[in-house]
Amino acid sequence: MVGDVLSGYRVLGFDLETTGLNARSERIVQYALIGSDEDGSHINLTSFVDPKRPIPAESTRIHGISDNDVKGVGGFENHAKQICDLISGAVIVGHNVSNFDWRFLELECMRAGFESPVPRAIIDTLSLARKLRIPGRHALGTLCARYDISIDRAHTADADAGASLLLLWSMMRKHPNEFRGDIDDLQDMLNRRGSKNQMGPSMEDLEPVPNTGGRLRQSPDGVIVAFGKHRGRTLEELEKIDSRYVDWLCSPSSPIPSRIVSEFVRNLRE
Question: Where are the alpha helices (DSSP H) in 64-206?
Fold first, then answer.
């Protein structure tokens, strides 16, 4: 049966919301671990986290979490043990979890003085969608729509964690021949390097920055320019190698509203 590959494990959808996209410099503001334990009992652990810094307005516009929401909930060090205890030995499921959420978790654990938890396996539904060569964009919302999965409150940790679990189950049902082995076979399939188109980051998979016509996109490494001669470079990288181009992006002659670019650039230059 399709579900046998996950049978007998604690299986948890995992998602984070953060102050920004760079795991080295930004912080977690919300986490969610949603799923079931080995005995089938339900697990639902979600909380805000105080990043101990102001949450940028552009991040609040995406996930809706403001400074008021995180007051009095404690920093990551207050949540780390419970998170690590649940993740240890579990099958962790998330969308782009390997490149985004897991990087944040490891660095936050290090800062808080905790060893990173060791899960039984990490199943990244973004990588899985690429491996299965599912047509179209592989953003979480797009894939969920394809499989008739409703996401209320998208870009909140609990909603996205739950949606990732449902997405995995839907892909397993749709492609049963790919899930005949055990959890190690599934992990090996995801870790096996494929072609660049299959496993490498695709510009179309990155979330567009609102009101930029897709010319700026969000990535784990920062805001990426998705057009022109510097297509694929982050604003942070461009600030170092071609600051005049960044100045042009902030000018009235730019094809992107200068107000939006200027806000990102101002944060880089502070």
Answer: 80-87, 102-112, 125-131, 140-146, 157-174, 183-191, 196-199
pTM for the predicted model, two decimal places: 0.72
49 and 71 assigned to the same domain: yes
Q: Provide CB contacts within 8 A for 124, sequence distance 6+.
A: 94, 95, 96, 97, 98, 99, 190
Query: Which of these three, 187, 203, 219, is where a domain ends?
Result: 203
- The Cα 120–Cα 255 span in angstroms is 47
Contacts of residue 111, defined as CB under 8 A and 6 or more positions apart, other chains included, come to 76
Are both 144 and 259 inside the same structural domain?
no
Residue 220: which domain range? 207-269
What's the CA gap between 9 and 39, in Å, rounded? 8
Same domain (yes/no): 182, 217: no
Read off the pLDDT of residues 141-170 as tens digits, 9 standing for 90 and up: 999 999 999 888 888 999 999 999 999 999
Q: 82-132: per-residue pLDDT in tens? A: 999 999 999 999 999 998 999 999 999 999 999 999 999 999 999 999 999
CB atoms within 10 A of CB 269: 9
Cβ-based neighbours of 248, under 8 Å, separated by 6 or more: 254
Domain-terminating residue out of 162, 185, 203: 203
Residues contacting 186, CB < 8 A, separation 6+: 5, 121, 123, 179
The CA distance from 105 to 76, in Å, is 10
Give yes or no: residues 41 and 166 share one domain.
yes
Residues 136, 183 within the same domain:
yes
